[in-house]
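Morning!

This is the sequence you dropped in the shared folder:
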Amino acid sequence: MSDYIPNARNLNWIIGFGCMFLMGAALYMEHMMHLEPCPLCIFQRVAVIAAGLIAIAAALHNPAQVGIKVYGLLVVLASAVGSALATRQLYLQSLPEDQVPSCGPGLDYLLDVFPMQEVIQMVLVGDGSCAEVVWTLLGVSIPGWTLVGFIGLVTLGLFQAFRNNAHQ
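The structure's back. Tokens below.
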């Protein structure tokens, strides 16, 4: 059975390439399908990039057992934040139309005018653009698929953090 489980370094490469795939899909949707990302989408992208960079750093570093666990938990942390953001967006999308928050200014404007802590608070509250379902696949919206990706990343990160004999 262990012949089919990649070693820690190879699994980190898989995680990193998985994150590149997720970002490629996001950029394709933005630039080829002309779907503008809302502020919550952009923050989810940051979480994907963070998880990918952590995994690639781990693959390049190729640490011993303790380092594998630390990198795995960092992937879990970044992915858990992304999961929470995707879940928040799914909640906003599930609201009845009369309960959806009104649309606010774009993220660029918020970053120019407000301190980062206030920007984060405003983005987490969400606005009408975050509640809009602009595309689905098999009845699941973009943040739903993103949540599936984050659950996969959390699972792989936990596997890395708690695996034994990682270098075999």
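Headline: The chain has one domain: 2-162.

More detail when I'm at my desk.
O.
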